[in-house]
């Protein structure tokens, strides 16, 4: 029941109809007994700055979740950031403070690693391959390094972009070997798809080297379809697969915490 006391939250995207966060976050609010409601906002890139300015003046607005294509552009529109957001170069969650300041965080990567952990996967010491160096890829790269992977190879169509990300990750986590390169699928402990390839039925696979095997894990950041062509190929070859949905479920808790909503697990 929404009343005059209900705290409002939003998710901004372009397009917006595919997002699953409103159901997940509103279920989370209900599960912790919090009087809040999250709604979708369809905002075009050219209107993003005006939209963000409007949020500063909404006294009953608690925070905003940001997704494609706004994660990078919204960074410059925040009044401050926490964690690795500035180094990553993107934001996916924003808290509105009582004075109207908008404080951004990037939780894609932390949600992804937490999703692995709740399924019994510890990435420490692994040789990992990350497909994609965009916003989600950058966040996952930083989170994998923070979680202690021994080696991280970043595969991207633009090698310069992969190299730039590798350099930024190594500057923050110098004990991790990070470099652009090829998938070299057979040698990896963990392969992560952080590209958008797999969202559509006619998408190409995000890599051509399909030498998957039973001693590795192949993971997705894509949530729908649940079984992407990449995961289907990996499963057929005997690899352990990890779906994208746990990333969202873990992010929900982290996002809510950043926006000031806590539950008993945060105590």
From TrEMBL:
Q: Does the keyword Glycosyltransferase apply?
A: no
Broad enzyme group: oxidoreductase
Q: Name one GO biological process term.
A: chorismate biosynthetic process
| Domain of life where this protein originates | Bacteria
Q: Where is the Shikimate dehydrogenase substrate binding N-terminal domain?
A: 11-94
Question: What InterPro entries is this protein classified in?
Answer: Aminoacid_DH-like_N_sf (IPR046346), NAD(P)-bd_dom_sf (IPR036291), Shikimate_DH-bd_N (IPR013708), Shikimate_DH_fam (IPR022893), Shikm_DH/Glu-tRNA_Rdtase (IPR006151)
Q: Which reaction is the catalytic activity of this chain?
A: shikimate + NADP(+) = 3-dehydroshikimate + NADPH + H(+)
Q: Which GO terms describe its molecular function?
A: NADP binding; shikimate 3-dehydrogenase (NADP+) activity
Q: Which residues form the Quinate/shikimate 5-dehydrogenase/glutamyl-tRNA reductase domain?
A: 123-196
Q: Name one GO cellular component term.
A: cytosol
Metabolic or biological pathway, per its Swiss-Prot or TrEMBL entry: Metabolic intermediate biosynthesis; chorismate biosynthesis; chorismate from D-erythrose 4-phosphate and phosphoenolpyruvate: step 4/7
The UniProt keyword set, sorted, is:
Amino-acid biosynthesis, Aromatic amino acid biosynthesis, NADP, Oxidoreductase
Q: Return the EC number.
A: 1.1.1.25
For whether the record's keyword set contains NADP, the answer is yes
Q: Which Gene3D superfamilies match?
A: Leucine Dehydrogenase, chain A, domain 1, NAD(P)-binding Rossmann-like Domain
Which SUPFAM superfamilies is this protein grouped with?
A: Aminoacid dehydrogenase-like, N-terminal domain (SSF53223), NAD(P)-binding Rossmann-fold domains (SSF51735)
> Under what name is this protein listed?
shikimate dehydrogenase (NADP(+))
The species this protein belongs to is Paracoccus sulfuroxidans
